[in-house]
Design brief:
The complex is a heterodimer of chains A (about 650) and B (about 170). With about 650 residues, chain A is α+β, with helices and mostly antiparallel strands. Chain A contains 24 helices and 10 strands. In chain A, a hairpin with a 6-residue loop joins β6 and β7. The radius of gyration of chain A is 27 Å and the shape is globular. Chain A starts with a helix and ends with a helix. Chain B is mainly alpha-helical and about 170 residues long. The longest helix of chain B has about 35 residues. The radius of gyration of chain B is 34 Å and the shape is rod-shaped. Classes of the chains: A alpha+beta (about 650), B mainly alpha (about 170). At the A-B interface, α8, α9, α10, α14 and α15 of A face α1 and α5 of B.
Chain lengths: ~650, ~170
């Protein structure tokens, strides 16, 4: 019964979405408030039905109802409860259901908190949301129904892929989807603005918080996925330039550009057309990511051609939405009034530069990811585009961008003073040079690239806080006064500083990990000792252990520094009883400050030893602290009163004016 | 969505046990040569995997390729010779960084093209717009022009008030 109700709820959600995608538009056209308000109730009802559908699938997984194909294929009665729940989206059908649930959630949020939006704009935004929703409901119902029953219910399930039986699955996909799908809001706003033919600073003010929310989640989602890969895959890599990763990086780059251009639009009423285009592109890239991951086209063009139903359906959705919105853009963009002017050296100019580099970076990832597919389709030639290509083309783009980052907030709107900004950044530059000298001396020669990159990162971090320090008059006034000023400073200024510093922090982590990483690969037996980066690791024991649905080989290492015992590390290798004895490596990590020791196990040898990989990764955690700092900056910015309050309602503004008089 | 899924798909598809990429018994005794082998391994694709280098991959084929790379290095090949040897055997597909040749011109030139093209477009756009601005605002007014402007504006105001009065 649960499966059927879940299925039925999804069908009802589709019905609601179809109503929501048409009636409010008609209402906006006829200027009929009753019809426009239909959008609000249908969006909320849609959320209710999708949520119940999702809850039904969770129920089926928790109760291990193997008569449902999706549960049978991805669950096992012995699986721990948390993985029974996360297993819901650890497969194609379930993850698509999560996708539409989050889409409905965002629609519901706009409906619930969008009361300060003009009625016609809200109706149109929600209608566009419903177009997207309808397309994906149809996709799920026709090609990927998670509630399909099996004619002969099996007694036991096939279990979830062991690598996915990790807490990472609980956090990473939902976060990523909140980001991906969150950008649908700015997309809907852009389409609604094009339909209305009107766009102003207030529009940017409404769009910015939604974009920011999506960006925060996407940032955290990508960082989380990277850390998950780092500890789970067992070879200590954290970014692979894999098409699946690139699929999430592209909307992030475009979304970051969008955040900055929307800022120009809000404050200066400029870059309108470009902001609209970026909103469309960002969500289009989210859709592209969904297509790449969900269609199987990445595995090989041929696999895609042999079972094309799903792929073709998403490709159709992709073409209709991207093609349609771009056509609408070309047709209507000229009706938008052009905004304020600015000189190239100005805050706006800096933000345009940011957009140029981020867009180029995004285009690089786009071409690098899709070129092999396109070439194979066109000429049949097979080439590979991997990490060495991206390191060579993508990374250099960030050098000028990062040099420019501290300058941006220092320049005035309209016409800035570059020399003045440079003078104010003198301290940051000096600190960077000092960092360069120190790193150079410490590394004793070697590659000059690493110390230069560290210097750049230090420049960005110190530069990010220079503006802040000046604005609160740090070191120039009594502490109490400085604190009062710090409190009075808009939170978005703090947000900018943290987010910008985050880039520098991440760069330090990346450079240190890639340059000064130490690695040991060898075979060890009980009692063997090896030294790495000053640490002494003794393999104490090698034992077998039984888990709930696996058995594992556990090695126990005693770690000491200067012959003082620090800790015990227990990497293991698990063989799962289900899934044909598939095995996973569970790396052991020991965190010291922000550096880590990393051990993972390989195959056991005939003479009782085992292959081990031991790494010392200096400052590696900074790679993820950087994005966390960026997300924190985003949250601070989001909590800024000016953004939270949003654009005032015209009536209220008028009332306030009268009171003031 | 995640590199994990990719790795899993391969491991699952081939039914391989998860093992290490570089095995202890593969490592060359000469440290410099081993470092060269590792660097080369990162540039080479494991052909049965999805976008993994042979340095990262656990597939048996990757191990064969790693051993082959080390064999060639031990035989005295230069880095370029090793790569050429592998390309001759397995085709361009084995290189993770494709060569700059007609079929990859677009790939390699996309980034500079977008950057330079975008820069030029921005420059032209800002010139065009400042020209528009120049026409609208023009150079600073002379004292004579300013006086004339004031006069015109006064006239307009007077006209408006008179027409309002008439109503």
């Amino acid at each position: 019964m649960i499966a059927e109700s879940g299925h039925y709820a999804l069908v009802l959600a589709l019905g609601l979405a179809l109503i929501q995608s048409t009636i409010p538009l008609l209402g906006a056209r006829l200027n009929d408030p009753a019809l426009m308000n239909v959008a609000r109730s249908t969006a909320l009802a849609q959320l209710l039905f999708v949520a119940s559908s999702f809850a039904a699938l969770v129920m089926l997984h928790v109760t291990s109802d193997f008569s449902v194909a999706n549960v049978f294929e991805n669950s096992h009665s012995l699986k721990p409860l948390v993985y029974k729940i996360t297993g819901v989206w650890g497969n194609h059908e379930g993850s698509m259901l999560l996708w539409v649930s989050i889409l409905a959630l965002f629609g519901g949020l706009v409906a619930a908190f969008g009361s300060n939006l003009p009625l016609s704009l809200r109706a149109r935004v929600l209608a566009v949301q419903a177009w997207i929703a309808s397309a994906f409901y149809l996709f799920i119902l026709t090609t990927s129904n998670p509630f399909l029953r099996l004619p002969d219910p099996p007694i036991e399930g096939r279990d979830l892929n062991p690598v996915l039986q990790d807490i990472g699955l609980a956090v990473h996909p939902p976060m990523l989807y909140l980001g991906y799908v969150g950008f649908s809001i700015s997309f809907s706003f852009a389409i609604a603005a094009l339909v209305e033919g009107r766009i102003d600073a207030a529009w940017a003010r409404w769009v910015r918080p939604w974009t920011l929310v999506a960006w925060i989640f996407l940032t955290l989602g990508i960082a989380m996925g990277s850390y998950w890969a780092y500890y789970e895959l067992g070879w200590g890599g954290w970014w692979f330039w894999d098409p699946v990763e690139n699929a999430s990086l592209m909307p992030w780059l475009a979304g970051t550009a969008l955040l900055h251009s929307a800022l120009v639009m809000e404050k200066r009423n400029a870059l309108k057309v470009w902001t609209i285009l970026l909103s469309i592109l960002t969500f289009s890239l989210s859709l592209l990511g969904t297509f790449l991951v969900r269609s199987g086209v990445l595995t090989s063009v041929h696999a895609f051609a042999t079972d094309p139903t799903r792929g073709v359906f998403i490709l159709l959705i992709l073409s209709v939405f991207v093609g349609g919105s771009l056509m609408l853009f070309v047709w209507r963009a000229s009706t938008l009034k052009r905004g304020g002017l600015f000189s190239p050296i100005s805050r706006e100019g800096a933000l345009v530069l940011n957009n140029l580099f981020l867009t180029t970076a995004c285009a690089t990832v786009f071409v690098g990811t899709l070129y092999p597919l396109a070439l194979e389709v066109v000429s049949g030639a097979k080439i590979s585009v991997g990490a060495p290509f991206f390191n060579l083309t993508f990374a250099p783009l960030f050098v000028p961008l990062m040099i420019a980052v501290p300058f941006g907030p220092m320049l005035a709107w309209k016409r800035g003073d570059l020399m003045g900004a440079a003078q104010r950044l003198l301290a940051a530059g000096a600190t960077a040079l000092l960092a360069l000298a120190v790193t150079w001396a410490w590394a004793r020669g070697g590659s000059a690239l690493a110390p230069l990159a560290i210097a750049l990162a230090v420049f960005v971090i110190v530069g990010a806080f220079t503006d802040l320090a000046e604005r609160i008059s740090l070191f120039r006034n009594p502490v109490a006064y400085v604190l009062a000023r710090a409190r009075g400073l808009p939170r978005s200024v703090w947000g900018t500083a943290f987010a910008h510093a985050g880039i520098g922090v991440a760069l330090i982590g990346i450079v240190c990990e890639t340059t000064w990483n130490t690695e040991y690969i060898g075979t060890m037996k009980e009692g063997d000792v090896m030294k790495i980066a000053g640490y002494e690791l003794r393999m104490d024991s090698l034992t077998q252990r039984l888990g709930p649905n696996y058995r594992e080989l556990v090695a126990s290492f005693i770690v000491s520094l200067n012959s003082e015992r620090l800790s015990k590390m227990t990497p293991s290798k698990r063989s799962f009883t289900t899934r044909g004895g598939m095995s996973t490596t569970e790396a052991a990590l020991l965190t010291r400050g922000v550096s880590q020791l990393y051990i993972s196990l390989g195959d056991a040898t005939a003479d009782g030893g085992i292959a081990v990989r031991i790494y010392h990764k200096p400052l590696v955690l900074l790679i993820w602290f950087g994005p966390i700092l960026m997300a924190l900056g985003g949250m601070l910015s989001l909590s800024d009163r000016r953004l939270r309050v949003g654009a005032p309602r015209p009536a209220e503004a008028l009332r306030r004016l009268q009171v003031a008089e | 969505m995640k590199p994990l899924l990719v790795a899993i798909c391969i491991v699952a598809a081939l039914g391989l046990p998860a093992a290490h990429a570089v095995q202890p018994d593969e490592i060359m005794s000469d440290r410099v040569e081993e470092a060269r082998a590792r660097d080369l391994s990162r540039e080479l694709r494991c052909m049965v995997c999805q976008n993994q280098s042979i340095d990262d991959s656990e597939a048996p084929l990757a191990r064969d390729l790693r051993l082959l790379v080390r064999e060639r290095i031990a035989a005295g090949d230069s880095d370029a010779q090793v790569l050429d040897f592998l390309v001759a055997r397995y085709g361009q597909f084995v290189l993770l960084k494709p060569k700059f040749e007609p079929q990859t011109f677009l790939l390699w030139l996309a980034t500079p093209f977008v950057l330079v093209g975008g820069g030029v477009a921005l420059w032209m756009h800002s010139r065009r717009r400042s020209k528009v601005l120049g026409e609208v605002a023009g150079p600073a007014l002379t004292a004579e022009e300013e006086a004339r402007l004031r006069e015109l504006m006064m006239q307009e105001v007077a006209q408006e008030t008179s027409s309002a009065n008439r109503l």
